[in-house]
Amino acid sequence: MKKSDTGEIKRRILSEIKKTEKRIVEYRKLTEPESPDCAVDTVLRAEAQNTGNINKTALKISEEKSKALKYMLSEVGKEDFGLCKRCNAPVPLQRLLAVPQSPFCVKCTSV
Q1: Is residue 92, in this structure, part of any structural domain at all?
Q2: Is residue 98 part of a domain?
Q3: Cβ partners under 8 Å of residue 106, min gap 6
Q4: CA–CA separation, 74 vs 50, rounded Å?
Q5: pLDDT tens, position by position, for the chain (111 residues)?
Q6: Domain contains 75
C-alpha cells in the first residue's frame, strides 16, 4: 500500500472517530433515565420506551464502531494493513475509505 494511501486512510479513520465519539455523547444523553410522569398516557409511555430502546441500540452500535475504528487506527502502517483478515486478499482503497472500521473485503464481509 502506498504511503499516501495510508495517510488518507488514517485521516479518514480519525475523522470517523471524531464523528462517532460525538454521536456517542449525544446517545448517552438521550438514554439517560427520565423520571416517569404519572400524567403521561400509556401510548406516549410506550412510544418513549420504544424511542429509548432505539437510542440504546444506536449507542451500542456507535460504541462498537468506535472500538473498531480505534483498532484499525492501531493497524495503519503495519505490514499487513489493507489485507483482509479472513482471506488475506488486498482490500481496495475505496473500501477502506468507505468503511474504515472493517478489516474485511466485501466478499468476506458478506460471509
Answers
A1: no
A2: no
A3: 95
A4: 37
A5: 777 899 999 999 999 999 999 999 999 998 887 666 555 677 677 777 778 889 999 999 999 999 999 999 999 999 999 999 999 999 999 999 999 999 999 999 886
A6: yes
Phi, psi (degrees; rounded to nearest 5) at 57: -65, -45
Entry pTM? 0.82
First to last CA, the chain: 25
In a domain, 100, yes or no: no
Give the chain's domain count. 1
